[in-house]
Amino acid sequence: MKPLKKSAVAVLIALTANLPTSAFALDAAELYVKKTCVACHGKDAKTPILPIYPKLAGQNADYAYNQMKDIASGARNHGQTAAMKGIMHLVSDEEMRAIADWLATLE
C-alpha cells in the first residue's frame, strides 16, 4: 500500500473536520443508559419505575427532543420535571437529539 501524499491527507482532514463526532459517533442506546434515562424510564423505555413517568419508546423524535430541551432550560417546570432537570445538565444538545431519534425507532 502506497503512503498518502500530503495533499491527500490535507483533503481527508478537511473533509472530516466538520463531521459530528460526539453524540452521533456514540450509540444512542448506550447514551440512554449512560445518561441514566434507564433508571426511571426502564431498560426498554416502556416500563417506567412509576406510572406517572412517561413511556418513551415510540415517542415522536421532535417531541421527545423538545421536551428534553424545555426541561433543561426550565421552560417546562412542574413537579415531575424536578428530577430530570438535575440530570439534563449532563446531556448535551447532540446527545438529546441522538436519544430522541433512537427512542422514536422503538416500538
Fold and architecture overview:
With 107 residues, the protein is mostly helical. It has a single domain (22-105), classed as Cytochrome c-like domain (Cytochrome Bc1 Complex, Chain D, domain 2). It is 53% helix and 0% strand. It has six helices and no strands. It has helices spanning 6-17, 28-34, 37-41, 61-73, 82-88, 93-105. Helix 2 (28-34) crosses helix 6, helix 4 (61-73) crosses helix 5 and helix 4 runs antiparallel to helix 6 (93-105). Mean pLDDT is 83; it is low at 8-22.
SSE layout and pairing:
Blueprint lengths: L5 H12 L10 H7 L2 H5 L19 H13 L8 H7 L4 H13 L2
Short structural description:
The chain is mainly alpha-helical and 107 residues long.
Annotated CATH topology: Cytochrome Bc1 Complex, Chain D, domain 2
Class computed from helices, strands and strand pairing: mainly alpha
Shape: globular
Helix content: 40-55%
Distance between the termini: 46 Å
H-E string: HHHHHH
Whole-number count of domains: 1
* Contiguous runs where pLDDT drops below 50 for at least 5 residues: 8-22
Distinct helical segment count? 6
Protein traits:
mainly alpha; Cytochrome Bc1 Complex, Chain D, domain 2; 0% strand; globular
